[in-house]
Amino acid sequence: MTDKVCLSVDPGVCGFSCKIKAWKKEKRVAGFEIVESRCEMIKKLSADLNEMNMNDLFIPVTGNPIFISAQRAGCHLACPVPTAIVKTVEVTLGLAVPKDVGFNFEQKC
To answer: How far is the CA of 41 from the CAs of 24, 54, 73, 93, 104, in angstroms?
Structure first.
């Protein structure tokens, strides 16, 4: 378990990369901020939500505070930033290991 985690996010074609910085506030609570983004929707998401507790990580997408905040902010459905927040908080709270994730389009199927 780590007390601070930083994750770089390359969201793809929009080009609005960002960093998510998270830290442990309490045993089961993590604070986070999204920095270095030029995306207005991600800025709104970051202003709307900056803390998660462990229980929030087990709420289904339709009721999850991260995805509700992303919807309020107008984030695109395929934006990977909300999911990246989940992964960052999981690592911060010791529920996951810091392993890179990604998806890549193949030239030939």
So the answer is: 25, 25, 5, 26, 24
pLDDT (tens digit per residue) in 54-76 = 999 999 999 999 999 999 999 99
Per the DSSP assignment, residues forming a β-bridge with 9 are 18
18 contacts 81 by C-beta, under 8 angstroms: yes
Phi and psi for 31 in degrees, rounded to 5?
-100, 155
For the chain, how many structural domains are there in total? 1
Question: Does residue 14 belong to any structural domain of this protein?
Answer: yes
Domain that holds residue 19: 4-92
pTM for this prediction: 0.93
pLDDT in tens, 3-15: 799 999 999 999 9
